[in-house]
Amino acid sequence: MKYQDAEYVVSRPDGYNIWNHGGSLSGAVRTPHGFVKVYSEGGRSNIELIIDGVCYTRFFERGFTARGLVTKAARFAEDMHWKTL
Fold this sequence. Notes:
alpha+beta, 5 strands, globular
């Protein structure tokens, strides 16, 4: 069985590391409530956050820029933080 490991550092001052992969965007956003995994391609986007072993996902029927993904990730993390209290 073949596999490939990957790693990336979320160290930018603005708290994200989003890569452009030939038209799709993916990466992670650091928020005060945890790290949010983001993905956007064409007319669809999704963001994921794990809190206490539960993975929360939000889907969008539109694509976003890297800046838009950062904004959506921060809002999503805050929404989920208050939901799980």
